[in-house]
Amino acid sequence: MFATPAFPTHDPDHGAPIHPRHLGTVLVLGGSIAGLLAAAAVAPFADRVVVVERDPLPDQPGPRPGTPQAQQSHALLASGCAAIDELLPGASHDLVVLGAHKGDSAAEVHTFAGGGRLTATVAGADSLAVSRLMLEAYLRSRVRELAVVTLLDNTDVRGLRGELTMGRPRVSGAHIHDPGDQEGEDESLDADLVVDATGSPGRAAAWFAREGWDVPEHEAFAVGVRCATTHLARSSGDVGGRTGVLSLATRQTPRQGLALAQEDGAWTLTLTSYEDRPPPADPEGFRAFGHSVDAPEIGELLDTHEVLEPPRPYRLPHSTRRRIERTTLPSGYAVIGDALCSLDPNFRQGMSVAALQAVALHDELAQSGARDKRVDAYHRRAVAIVDQAWDMVVTAVHGIRGTGEGRSEKAFVSYVAAVQHGARSDPELARAFLRVVNMLDPPQALMRPGIVVRVAGAAAHLPPTHLPSVHLPVHLPKVPLPEVHLPSPPLPEILMPVQIAARRTKARRAARKGGRTAYKIKDQGSVS
Ligand SMILES: Cc1cc2nc3c(=O)[nH]c(=O)nc-3n(C[C@H](O)[C@H](O)[C@H](O)COP(=O)(O)OP(=O)(O)OC[C@H]3O[C@@H](n4cnc5c(N)ncnc54)[C@H](O)[C@@H]3O)c2cc1C
């Protein structure tokens, strides 16, 4: 399906700031999105970076066994796109030249949230529609240009090598093996820093247990996602000339649809079920499922365009994370991407989380101070990035499933539903919501006073029974904007999520003892 792209070449030293190379050898375990971005992040500080990947790595875009998800639709959120450009300048421009579509998702993508179409607006949320296979191949080509980096593919990591330094375990390398040579001995690679980018959070747990180190607690959140992806022929006038359609699942319609224009001129289309049964694999059943999501454009695409291949199914029962913040990790070890947290794919966060973490790793290594302290500081930021994504998934899945513990979580779910409802007609609410979805702003941004007032104003125009997916906990007063005087009884209710968020933020700050904020990309001209 992929024509052979001619990847542009770069001089990686051109214009790059010079940093002291205070690391000798860095091993990056896993050569997928997180591993490649980690290699780019540490390269300015290391004499040598070796990326160890089990699969043979092709020069061109192509599937491989270690990343079975790569043939499902992937979108790169605006925050991830900006982070990749920061690490590898010009990356998104190159990808656009190769056929990817970059644009403000608030204007370029028809978004249905909470059962309604969000009004088009300007959100400064430039996301990238590109196949995951193309993105990974491009990143490989960029990382190969870095003089200090070697990609050691077709090599299995069997475990970590450790020693005890001043009472704290220290990772000093990794045991590797040629997967084609079952009889052969493991080899050992030395490293000053080992970055774990092996994907599933479970792998390192076994390695830690074998060494007798504390194994970080493993947390799973049931998401029960079943999806299937196909490709459709595409013409430029489809869906009003936009490059994407996103139909988010709701309590009433626990089904999701995502169509994205791809660099090869086709649509990639993923249908997702939060129900017990997956989207049907037969053409008629798949088409009918497409018509059952909220965005009519998904069904229309299936009616009018040739389906180029049978739908490819995928199942993800849980989002999982390693609670590294609750234990002391061995020194000389850093973790990034899905190896730290794998998220519900329907929120399109995984690659962006990895990219934001890679920027955080780069920034922390650029600071002066002891290396172990810098890595600890990186982990605090990496966890903060995960928290942001994880909280969004948990809130949204509770909204879809009608679950959630206690009044506070339910109130938060209701509040987000009210934001989505208001975003159908209020461009500022659409902007605020999509900036959070794109991880440009934290979820707390939805509770800025200016946003709360707009949500109240929008909700006041409908009786609560007409609200889209989850009812607001109170009858909101009918108030004219912009002079809003909310009477006292409803105010505490609508502000409850604000108070909860403030409490959570305070608790996290205390837990992190002054860890730095995760958000580098500032909102230009927010409404609050
Ligand atoms: C269905 C689906 C759809 C998704 N859609 C999106 C989306 O739209 N947007 C988005 O941002 N994210 C999406 N994601 C998430 C995204 O795929 C990942 O979060 C992202 O690719 C980061 O992955 P990673 O590099 O951390 O891990 P992985 O991609 O899992 O890579 C791990 C790598 O480590 C290698 N490896 C593992 N063990 C070893 C070993 N012992 N020795 C050597 N190598 C090893 C593997 O071969 C692999 O190359 C989706 C995920 C799924 C499942």
Automatic annotation (TrEMBL):
Chain segments carrying region Disordered: 509-528
Transmembrane segments: none
Top-level taxonomic group: Bacteria
InterPro entries to which the protein is assigned, alphabetical: FAD/NAD-bd_sf (IPR036188)
Matches recorded under PANTHER family: THIAMINE THIAZOLE SYNTHASE (PTHR43422:SF3)
Name recorded for this polypeptide: FAD-binding domain-containing protein
